[in-house]
Protein backbone atom coordinates (compact mmCIF):
# COMPACT_ATOMS: atom_id res chain seq x y z
CA UNK A 1 0.00 0.00 0.00
CA UNK A 2 1.43 3.41 -0.98
CA UNK A 3 1.72 5.91 1.88
CA UNK A 4 1.02 9.09 -0.07
CA UNK A 5 -2.16 7.97 -1.80
CA UNK A 6 -3.38 6.04 1.21
CA UNK A 7 -3.09 8.99 3.59
CA UNK A 8 -4.72 11.46 1.23
CA UNK A 9 -7.64 9.09 0.76
CA UNK A 10 -7.90 8.38 4.48
CA UNK A 11 -8.51 11.92 5.74
CA UNK A 12 -12.27 12.17 6.31
CA UNK A 13 -14.34 15.07 5.03
CA UNK A 14 -17.61 14.69 7.01
CA UNK A 15 -18.67 17.66 9.16
CA UNK A 16 -15.74 19.88 8.19
CA UNK A 17 -16.55 19.52 4.48
CA UNK A 18 -20.22 20.31 5.05
CA UNK A 19 -19.42 23.38 7.10
CA UNK A 20 -16.75 24.52 4.62
CA UNK A 21 -19.29 24.41 1.77
CA UNK A 22 -21.59 26.60 3.83
CA UNK A 23 -18.75 29.03 4.61
CA UNK A 24 -17.71 29.32 0.94
CA UNK A 25 -21.25 30.29 0.00
CA UNK A 26 -21.20 33.31 2.33
CA UNK A 27 -19.03 35.76 0.42
CA UNK A 28 -17.30 38.50 2.40
CA UNK A 29 -17.77 42.21 1.67
CA UNK A 30 -14.10 43.20 1.70
CA UNK A 31 -14.84 46.82 0.82
CA UNK A 32 -16.67 47.29 4.11
CA UNK A 33 -13.51 46.23 5.94
CA UNK A 34 -11.51 48.64 3.79
CA UNK A 35 -13.90 51.50 4.52
CA UNK A 36 -13.66 50.69 8.23
CA UNK A 37 -9.87 50.88 7.86
CA UNK A 38 -9.50 47.32 9.17
CA UNK A 39 -7.59 46.14 6.08
CA UNK A 40 -5.29 47.87 3.59
CA UNK A 41 -6.20 48.75 0.01
CA UNK A 42 -3.46 46.39 -1.16
CA UNK A 43 -4.92 43.42 0.75
CA UNK A 44 -8.47 44.28 -0.31
CA UNK A 45 -7.47 44.40 -3.97
CA UNK A 46 -5.57 41.12 -3.82
CA UNK A 47 -8.18 39.06 -1.95
CA UNK A 48 -11.01 40.38 -4.14
CA UNK A 49 -9.09 39.28 -7.23
CA UNK A 50 -7.89 35.96 -5.85
CA UNK A 51 -11.16 34.60 -4.47
CA UNK A 52 -13.00 34.87 -7.82
CA UNK A 53 -10.13 33.60 -10.00
CA UNK A 54 -10.45 30.25 -11.75
CA UNK A 55 -8.11 27.42 -10.79
CA UNK A 56 -5.60 28.00 -13.61
CA UNK A 57 -5.65 31.75 -13.03
CA UNK A 58 -5.04 31.23 -9.30
CA UNK A 59 -1.93 29.23 -10.10
CA UNK A 60 -0.61 32.06 -12.27
CA UNK A 61 -1.36 34.60 -9.52
CA UNK A 62 0.43 32.47 -6.94
CA UNK A 63 3.44 32.00 -9.22
CA UNK A 64 3.80 35.75 -9.73
CA UNK A 65 2.49 37.05 -6.41
CA UNK A 66 3.10 34.28 -3.88
CA UNK A 67 4.63 36.69 -1.37
CA UNK A 68 1.63 39.01 -1.57
CA UNK A 69 -0.78 36.08 -1.23
CA UNK A 70 0.77 34.84 2.03
CA UNK A 71 1.05 38.41 3.32
CA UNK A 72 -2.61 39.16 2.58
CA UNK A 73 -3.90 35.94 4.12
CA UNK A 74 -1.94 36.51 7.33
CA UNK A 75 -2.84 40.22 7.50
CA UNK A 76 -6.54 39.41 7.18
CA UNK A 77 -6.27 36.79 9.92
CA UNK A 78 -4.50 39.26 12.20
CA UNK A 79 -6.83 42.25 11.70
CA UNK A 80 -10.29 40.69 11.42
CA UNK A 81 -11.96 39.21 14.49
CA UNK A 82 -15.41 38.34 13.12
CA UNK A 83 -15.66 34.54 13.34
CA UNK A 84 -17.54 34.07 10.08
CA UNK A 85 -14.87 35.99 8.15
CA UNK A 86 -12.01 34.15 9.88
CA UNK A 87 -13.69 30.88 8.89
CA UNK A 88 -13.87 32.09 5.29
CA UNK A 89 -10.17 33.03 5.23
CA UNK A 90 -9.09 29.68 6.68
CA UNK A 91 -11.30 27.78 4.24
CA UNK A 92 -9.79 29.71 1.33
CA UNK A 93 -6.27 28.93 2.57
CA UNK A 94 -7.10 25.24 3.05
CA UNK A 95 -8.64 25.01 -0.43
CA UNK A 96 -5.58 26.69 -1.92
CA UNK A 97 -3.18 24.21 -0.29
CA UNK A 98 -5.34 21.17 -1.01
CA UNK A 99 -5.49 22.00 -4.72
CA UNK A 100 -1.70 21.93 -5.00
CA UNK A 101 0.54 20.72 -2.16
CA UNK A 102 3.48 22.78 -3.44
CA UNK A 103 1.63 25.96 -2.57
CA UNK A 104 2.63 25.57 1.08
CA UNK A 105 5.94 27.08 -0.01
CA UNK A 106 4.44 30.57 -0.33
CA UNK A 107 4.03 30.53 3.47
CA UNK A 108 7.57 29.22 3.99
CA UNK A 109 9.01 31.88 1.66
CA UNK A 110 7.10 34.62 3.45
CA UNK A 111 8.04 33.25 6.89
CA UNK A 112 11.72 33.28 5.94
CA UNK A 113 11.57 36.94 4.93
CA UNK A 114 9.73 37.88 8.12
CA UNK A 115 12.01 35.67 10.28
CA UNK A 116 9.11 33.58 11.45
CA UNK A 117 7.75 30.05 10.93
CA UNK A 118 5.10 29.07 8.42
CA UNK A 119 2.73 27.92 11.18
CA UNK A 120 3.35 30.59 13.83
CA UNK A 121 0.18 32.52 12.87
CA UNK A 122 -1.98 29.38 12.92
CA UNK A 123 -0.92 27.73 16.20
CA UNK A 124 -2.60 30.38 18.42
CA UNK A 125 -5.88 29.71 16.61
CA UNK A 126 -6.03 26.28 18.25
CA UNK A 127 -7.12 28.11 21.41
CA UNK A 128 -10.18 29.73 19.85
CA UNK A 129 -13.70 28.74 20.87
CA UNK A 130 -15.27 27.95 17.51
CA UNK A 131 -14.72 24.29 16.62
CA UNK A 132 -14.73 24.79 12.87
CA UNK A 133 -12.14 27.56 13.12
CA UNK A 134 -9.95 25.47 15.41
CA UNK A 135 -10.07 22.38 13.24
CA UNK A 136 -9.47 24.28 10.00
CA UNK A 137 -6.39 25.84 11.60
CA UNK A 138 -5.28 22.37 12.73
CA UNK A 139 -5.67 21.00 9.19
CA UNK A 140 -3.65 23.85 7.72
CA UNK A 141 -0.87 23.35 10.30
CA UNK A 142 -0.71 19.63 9.44
CA UNK A 143 -0.47 20.38 5.73
CA UNK A 144 2.25 22.97 6.22
CA UNK A 145 4.22 20.61 8.49
CA UNK A 146 3.77 17.53 6.29
CA UNK A 147 4.15 19.07 2.84
CA UNK A 148 6.56 21.92 3.56
CA UNK A 149 10.31 21.99 3.07
CA UNK A 150 11.06 22.77 6.74
CA UNK A 151 10.21 20.50 9.64
CA UNK A 152 8.18 21.61 12.62
CA UNK A 153 10.38 21.21 15.69
CA UNK A 154 10.79 21.95 19.38
CA UNK A 155 8.06 23.69 21.35
CA UNK A 156 5.85 24.18 18.27
CA UNK A 157 5.77 20.45 17.54
CA UNK A 158 5.27 19.55 21.21
CA UNK A 159 2.39 22.02 21.43
CA UNK A 160 0.71 20.68 18.30
CA UNK A 161 1.11 17.02 19.28
CA UNK A 162 -0.22 17.75 22.78
CA UNK A 163 -3.24 19.42 21.18
CA UNK A 164 -3.82 16.31 19.04
CA UNK A 165 -3.46 13.97 22.04
CA UNK A 166 -5.86 16.03 24.14
CA UNK A 167 -8.54 16.06 21.45
CA UNK A 168 -8.15 12.38 20.59
CA UNK A 169 -8.56 11.53 24.25
CA UNK A 170 -11.59 13.71 24.85
CA UNK A 171 -14.97 11.99 24.83
CA UNK A 172 -16.99 15.19 24.53
CA UNK A 173 -15.95 18.35 22.75
CA UNK A 174 -17.34 21.63 23.96
CA UNK A 175 -17.52 24.88 22.05
CA UNK A 176 -19.84 27.03 20.01
CA UNK A 177 -20.63 24.03 17.83
CA UNK A 178 -22.29 23.98 14.47
CA UNK A 179 -25.35 25.83 15.66
CA UNK A 180 -25.08 29.49 16.74
CA UNK A 181 -25.70 30.05 20.42
CA UNK A 182 -25.27 26.44 21.53
CA UNK A 183 -22.62 25.59 24.11
CA UNK A 184 -22.19 21.93 23.22
CA UNK A 185 -22.35 19.74 20.15
CA UNK A 186 -24.00 16.38 19.56
CA UNK A 187 -22.09 13.11 20.11
CA UNK A 188 -22.21 12.51 16.36
CA UNK A 189 -20.60 15.87 15.59
CA UNK A 190 -18.08 15.37 18.39
CA UNK A 191 -17.10 12.03 16.88
CA UNK A 192 -16.63 13.60 13.46
CA UNK A 193 -14.43 16.37 14.84
CA UNK A 194 -12.26 13.74 16.55
CA UNK A 195 -11.93 12.03 13.15
CA UNK A 196 -10.65 15.33 11.77
CA UNK A 197 -8.02 15.45 14.52
CA UNK A 198 -7.04 11.87 13.63
CA UNK A 199 -6.76 12.98 9.99
CA UNK A 200 -4.22 15.63 11.03
CA UNK A 201 -2.16 12.96 12.78
CA UNK A 202 -2.32 10.73 9.70
CA UNK A 203 -0.81 13.53 7.62
CA UNK A 204 1.91 14.23 10.17
CA UNK A 205 3.00 10.61 10.50
CA UNK A 206 3.78 10.41 6.80
CA UNK A 207 7.01 12.16 7.78
CA UNK A 208 9.58 9.90 9.43
CA UNK A 209 10.87 12.56 11.84
CA UNK A 210 7.36 13.20 13.14
CA UNK A 211 6.87 9.49 13.80
CA UNK A 212 9.78 9.51 16.22
CA UNK A 213 8.53 12.70 17.85
CA UNK A 214 5.04 11.21 18.28
CA UNK A 215 6.40 8.08 19.98
CA UNK A 216 8.65 10.26 22.16
CA UNK A 217 5.57 12.27 23.19
CA UNK A 218 3.88 9.05 24.42
CA UNK A 219 1.59 9.15 21.42
CA UNK A 220 1.34 5.35 21.10
CA UNK A 221 -0.38 5.13 24.48
CA UNK A 222 -2.85 7.72 23.20
CA UNK A 223 -3.60 5.57 20.12
CA UNK A 224 -4.06 2.35 22.11
CA UNK A 225 -6.29 4.17 24.62
CA UNK A 226 -8.57 5.33 21.79
CA UNK A 227 -8.68 1.81 20.32
CA UNK A 228 -9.55 0.26 23.69
CA UNK A 229 -12.42 2.70 24.16
CA UNK A 230 -14.78 1.02 21.67
CA UNK A 231 -14.60 3.88 19.17
CA UNK A 232 -16.44 3.80 15.83
CA UNK A 233 -14.97 1.95 12.87
CA UNK A 234 -13.80 5.13 11.09
CA UNK A 235 -11.71 6.26 14.06
CA UNK A 236 -10.52 2.66 14.51
CA UNK A 237 -9.33 2.69 10.92
CA UNK A 238 -7.52 6.00 11.36
CA UNK A 239 -5.77 4.99 14.58
CA UNK A 240 -4.63 1.66 13.13
CA UNK A 241 -3.53 3.57 10.04
CA UNK A 242 -1.24 5.56 12.34
CA UNK A 243 0.20 2.33 13.77
CA UNK A 244 0.81 1.15 10.20
CA UNK A 245 2.68 4.38 9.44
CA UNK A 246 4.77 4.14 12.62
CA UNK A 247 5.76 0.58 11.71
CA UNK A 248 7.47 1.78 8.53
CA UNK A 249 10.43 2.81 10.73
CA UNK A 250 12.57 -0.19 11.82
CA UNK A 251 13.71 1.60 15.00
CA UNK A 252 10.11 2.32 15.97
CA UNK A 253 9.16 -1.33 15.46
CA UNK A 254 11.59 -2.02 18.31
CA UNK A 255 9.92 0.58 20.52
CA UNK A 256 6.36 -0.48 19.66
CA UNK A 257 7.03 -3.79 21.44
CA UNK A 258 6.39 -2.02 24.75
CA UNK A 259 2.83 -0.98 23.90
CA UNK A 260 0.96 -4.26 23.33
CA UNK A 261 -0.35 -3.13 19.95
CA UNK A 262 -0.78 -6.71 18.70
CA UNK A 263 -3.43 -7.70 21.29
CA UNK A 264 -5.30 -4.43 20.65
CA UNK A 265 -5.34 -4.96 16.88
CA UNK A 266 -6.15 -8.67 17.08
CA UNK A 267 -9.24 -7.92 19.21
CA UNK A 268 -10.48 -5.51 16.56
CA UNK A 269 -9.65 -7.94 13.75
CA UNK A 270 -11.78 -10.59 15.45
CA UNK A 271 -14.82 -8.29 15.57
CA UNK A 272 -14.25 -6.30 12.37
CA UNK A 273 -17.04 -6.22 9.81
CA UNK A 274 -15.49 -3.47 7.68
CA UNK A 275 -13.11 -4.60 4.96
CA UNK A 276 -11.00 -1.45 5.16
CA UNK A 277 -10.42 -2.01 8.90
CA UNK A 278 -9.39 -5.61 8.23
CA UNK A 279 -7.09 -4.45 5.43
CA UNK A 280 -5.25 -1.87 7.55
CA UNK A 281 -4.80 -4.29 10.48
CA UNK A 282 -3.25 -6.89 8.16
CA UNK A 283 -1.02 -4.20 6.63
CA UNK A 284 0.10 -3.11 10.12
CA UNK A 285 0.85 -6.71 11.12
CA UNK A 286 2.84 -7.17 7.91
CA UNK A 287 4.90 -4.05 8.60
CA UNK A 288 5.68 -5.21 12.14
CA UNK A 289 7.00 -8.52 10.78
CA UNK A 290 8.79 -7.12 7.71
CA UNK A 291 10.19 -3.77 8.84
CA UNK A 292 11.62 -4.88 12.20
CA UNK A 293 15.40 -4.99 11.83
CA UNK A 294 16.07 -7.48 14.64
CA UNK A 295 15.20 -11.17 14.28
CA UNK A 296 14.25 -11.30 17.97
CA UNK A 297 11.74 -8.48 17.46
CA UNK A 298 10.15 -10.17 14.43
CA UNK A 299 9.88 -13.40 16.41
CA UNK A 300 8.32 -11.60 19.37
CA UNK A 301 5.66 -10.01 17.16
CA UNK A 302 4.95 -13.37 15.50
CA UNK A 303 4.58 -15.07 18.90
CA UNK A 304 2.27 -12.29 20.09
CA UNK A 305 0.08 -12.80 17.02
CA UNK A 306 -0.02 -16.55 17.62
CA UNK A 307 -0.85 -16.01 21.29
CA UNK A 308 -3.73 -13.69 20.28
CA UNK A 309 -5.21 -16.32 17.94
CA UNK A 310 -4.38 -14.30 14.80
CA UNK A 311 -3.40 -17.48 12.94
CA UNK A 312 -6.93 -18.85 13.33
CA UNK A 313 -8.41 -15.54 12.17
CA UNK A 314 -6.14 -15.54 9.12
CA UNK A 315 -7.25 -19.06 8.21
CA UNK A 316 -10.87 -17.89 8.35
CA UNK A 317 -10.10 -14.79 6.27
CA UNK A 318 -8.26 -16.93 3.72
CA UNK A 319 -11.54 -18.69 2.92
CA UNK A 320 -13.10 -15.42 1.73
CA UNK A 321 -12.73 -13.63 -1.60
CA UNK A 322 -11.46 -10.05 -1.83
CA UNK A 323 -11.33 -7.56 -4.68
CA UNK A 324 -8.35 -5.90 -3.01
CA UNK A 325 -5.14 -7.78 -3.87
CA UNK A 326 -3.36 -6.20 -0.88
CA UNK A 327 -5.57 -8.16 1.51
CA UNK A 328 -4.95 -11.46 -0.30
CA UNK A 329 -1.18 -10.87 -0.41
CA UNK A 330 -1.03 -9.86 3.25
CA UNK A 331 -3.04 -12.91 4.37
CA UNK A 332 -0.75 -15.19 2.38
CA UNK A 333 2.43 -13.66 3.80
CA UNK A 334 1.17 -13.59 7.39
CA UNK A 335 0.00 -17.22 7.22
CA UNK A 336 3.43 -18.21 5.93
CA UNK A 337 5.37 -16.25 8.58
CA UNK A 338 3.20 -17.32 11.51
CA UNK A 339 3.18 -20.92 10.29
CA UNK A 340 6.99 -20.92 10.38
CA UNK A 341 6.98 -19.45 13.88
CA UNK A 342 4.53 -22.07 15.19
CA UNK A 343 6.92 -24.84 14.16
CA UNK A 344 9.76 -23.22 16.14
CA UNK A 345 7.57 -22.39 19.14
CA UNK A 346 8.87 -23.68 22.48
CA UNK A 347 6.79 -23.88 25.64
CA UNK A 348 8.81 -21.00 27.09
CA UNK A 349 8.18 -18.87 23.99
CA UNK A 350 4.48 -19.58 24.40
CA UNK A 351 4.56 -18.64 28.08
CA UNK A 352 6.62 -15.49 27.47
CA UNK A 353 4.29 -14.31 24.71
CA UNK A 354 1.19 -14.96 26.82
CA UNK A 355 2.68 -13.07 29.76
CA UNK A 356 3.70 -10.07 27.65
CA UNK A 357 0.21 -9.88 26.19
CA UNK A 358 -1.15 -9.43 29.71
CA UNK A 359 -3.84 -12.02 28.98
CA UNK A 360 -3.03 -14.93 31.25
CA UNK A 361 -5.28 -17.97 31.05
CA UNK A 362 -5.02 -21.56 32.26
CA UNK A 363 -3.03 -22.77 29.25
CA UNK A 364 -1.16 -26.09 29.79
CA UNK A 365 2.26 -24.55 30.56
CA UNK A 366 1.05 -23.06 33.85
CA UNK A 367 0.17 -26.49 35.27
CA UNK A 368 3.17 -28.31 33.79
CA UNK A 369 5.66 -29.54 36.40
CA UNK A 370 8.21 -30.12 33.63
CA UNK A 371 7.82 -26.55 32.35
CA UNK A 372 8.50 -24.96 35.73
CA UNK A 373 11.35 -27.32 36.56
CA UNK A 374 13.10 -26.42 33.30
CA UNK A 375 12.15 -22.74 32.98
CA UNK A 376 11.57 -21.12 36.39
CA UNK A 377 15.07 -19.65 36.43
CA UNK A 378 14.51 -18.14 32.96
CA UNK A 379 12.08 -15.62 34.47
CA UNK A 380 15.25 -13.92 35.76
CA UNK A 381 16.52 -13.19 32.23
CA UNK A 382 16.86 -9.63 30.91
CA UNK A 383 16.93 -8.13 34.40
CA UNK A 384 13.83 -10.05 35.56
CA UNK A 385 11.73 -8.72 32.66
CA UNK A 386 9.06 -11.44 32.82
CA UNK A 387 8.97 -11.45 36.61
CA UNK A 388 8.34 -7.70 36.60
CA UNK A 389 5.45 -8.17 34.18
CA UNK A 390 4.03 -10.93 36.39
CA UNK A 391 4.05 -8.78 39.53
CA UNK A 392 2.73 -5.82 37.56
CA UNK A 393 -0.31 -7.87 36.50
CA UNK A 394 -0.98 -8.70 40.16
CA UNK A 395 -1.09 -4.97 40.80
CA UNK A 396 -3.04 -3.54 37.87
CA UNK A 397 -5.23 -6.29 36.41
CA UNK A 398 -8.93 -6.35 37.27
CA UNK A 399 -9.52 -9.72 35.57
CA UNK A 400 -9.90 -12.46 38.24
CA UNK A 401 -8.51 -15.12 35.90
CA UNK A 402 -5.38 -13.08 35.15
CA UNK A 403 -4.81 -12.44 38.87
CA UNK A 404 -5.36 -16.11 39.78
CA UNK A 405 -2.93 -17.36 37.11
CA UNK A 406 -0.35 -14.71 38.04
CA UNK A 407 -0.53 -15.68 41.73
CA UNK A 408 -0.19 -19.35 40.77
CA UNK A 409 2.87 -18.59 38.63
CA UNK A 410 4.57 -16.63 41.42
CA UNK A 411 4.14 -19.67 43.64
CA UNK A 412 5.54 -22.05 41.04
CA UNK A 413 8.49 -19.74 40.39
CA UNK A 414 9.62 -19.70 44.05
CA UNK A 415 8.88 -23.42 44.47
CA UNK A 416 11.29 -24.30 41.67
CA UNK A 417 13.70 -21.43 42.30
CA UNK A 418 13.72 -20.78 46.08
CA UNK A 419 16.26 -17.94 45.80
CA UNK A 420 13.61 -16.07 43.85
CA UNK A 421 11.71 -15.34 47.07
CA UNK A 422 13.93 -12.35 47.75
CA UNK A 423 13.43 -11.05 44.19
CA UNK A 424 9.64 -11.39 44.49
CA UNK A 425 9.74 -9.52 47.79
CA UNK A 426 11.90 -6.72 46.32
CA UNK A 427 9.45 -6.34 43.43
CA UNK A 428 6.55 -6.07 45.86
CA UNK A 429 5.07 -9.35 44.66
CA UNK A 430 4.79 -10.94 48.09
CA UNK A 431 2.61 -8.15 49.46
CA UNK A 432 0.50 -8.10 46.30
CA UNK A 433 -0.17 -11.84 46.55
CA UNK A 434 -1.06 -11.49 50.23
CA UNK A 435 -3.50 -8.70 49.38
CA UNK A 436 -5.32 -11.03 47.00
CA UNK A 437 -5.96 -13.57 49.78
CA UNK A 438 -9.02 -11.43 50.54
CA UNK A 439 -10.17 -11.07 46.93
CA UNK A 440 -13.90 -11.50 46.23
CA UNK A 441 -13.20 -14.23 43.66
CA UNK A 442 -12.79 -17.72 45.18
CA UNK A 443 -10.24 -18.88 42.60
CA UNK A 444 -8.08 -15.79 43.20
CA UNK A 445 -8.18 -16.36 46.98
CA UNK A 446 -7.27 -20.02 46.53
CA UNK A 447 -4.26 -19.37 44.26
CA UNK A 448 -3.09 -16.44 46.36
CA UNK A 449 -3.19 -18.64 49.48
CA UNK A 450 -1.15 -21.38 47.77
CA UNK A 451 1.37 -18.82 46.52
CA UNK A 452 1.79 -17.34 50.01
CA UNK A 453 2.34 -20.84 51.42
CA UNK A 454 5.05 -21.46 48.81
CA UNK A 455 6.64 -18.11 49.64
CA UNK A 456 6.65 -18.85 53.37
CA UNK A 457 7.13 -22.61 53.80
CA UNK A 458 10.54 -24.28 53.62
CA UNK A 459 9.48 -27.92 54.02
CA UNK A 460 8.30 -28.78 50.50
CA UNK A 461 7.48 -32.40 51.33
CA UNK A 462 5.12 -31.29 54.10
CA UNK A 463 3.63 -28.58 51.87
CA UNK A 464 3.09 -31.12 49.10
CA UNK A 465 0.92 -33.23 51.38
CA UNK A 466 -1.01 -30.15 52.49
CA UNK A 467 -1.59 -29.04 48.88
CA UNK A 468 -2.77 -32.51 47.93
CA UNK A 469 -5.28 -32.42 50.76
CA UNK A 470 -6.45 -28.89 49.84
CA UNK A 471 -6.82 -29.65 46.14
CA UNK A 472 -9.00 -32.68 46.85
CA UNK A 473 -11.53 -30.41 48.54
CA UNK A 474 -11.36 -27.65 45.88
CA UNK A 475 -13.15 -27.78 42.49
CA UNK A 476 -10.82 -28.40 39.56
CA UNK A 477 -9.73 -25.33 37.64
CA UNK A 478 -11.37 -25.13 34.24
CA UNK A 479 -8.85 -24.77 31.45
CA UNK A 480 -9.38 -23.29 28.06
CA UNK A 481 -7.31 -23.31 24.94
Automatic annotation (TrEMBL):
Keyword Signal appears in the UniProt entry: no
Membrane topology label: Peripheral membrane protein
UniProtKB keywords: Hydrogen ion transport, Ion transport, Transport
TM spans (from-to): none
Residue ranges the record marks as coiled coil: none
Pfam families: V-ATPase_H_C, V-ATPase_H_N
Positions of the ATPase V1 complex subunit H C-terminal domain: 345-460
Location of the protein in the cell: Cytoplasmic vesicle, Clathrin-coated vesicle membrane
CDD domains registered for this protein in UniProt: VATPase_H
Subunit structure: V-ATPase is a heteromultimeric enzyme made up of two complexes: the ATP-hydrolytic V1 complex and the proton translocation V0 complex.
Role summary: Subunit of the V1 complex of vacuolar(H+)-ATPase (V-ATPase), a multisubunit enzyme composed of a peripheral complex (V1) that hydrolyzes ATP and a membrane integral complex (V0) that translocates protons. V-ATPase is responsible for acidifying and maintaining the pH of intracellular compartments and in some cell types, is targeted to the plasma membrane, where it is responsible for acidifying the extracellular environment. Subunit H is essential for V-ATPase activity, but not for the assembly of the complex.
Name of the protein this chain belongs to: V-type proton ATPase subunit H
Amino acid sequence: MDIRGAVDAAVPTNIIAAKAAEVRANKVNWKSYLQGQMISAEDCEFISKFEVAKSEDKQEILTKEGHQCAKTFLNLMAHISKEQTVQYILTLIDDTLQENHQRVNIFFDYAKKTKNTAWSNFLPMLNRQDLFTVHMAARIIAKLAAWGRDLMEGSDLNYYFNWIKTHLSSQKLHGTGAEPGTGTISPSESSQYVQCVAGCLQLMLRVNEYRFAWVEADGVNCITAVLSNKCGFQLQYQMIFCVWLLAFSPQLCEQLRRYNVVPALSDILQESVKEKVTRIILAAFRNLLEKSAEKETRQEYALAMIQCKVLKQLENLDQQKYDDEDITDDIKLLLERLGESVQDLSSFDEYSSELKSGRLEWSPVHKSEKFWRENAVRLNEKNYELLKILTRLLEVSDDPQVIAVAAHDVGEYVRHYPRGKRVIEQLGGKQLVMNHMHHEDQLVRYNALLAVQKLMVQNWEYLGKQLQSTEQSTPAVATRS
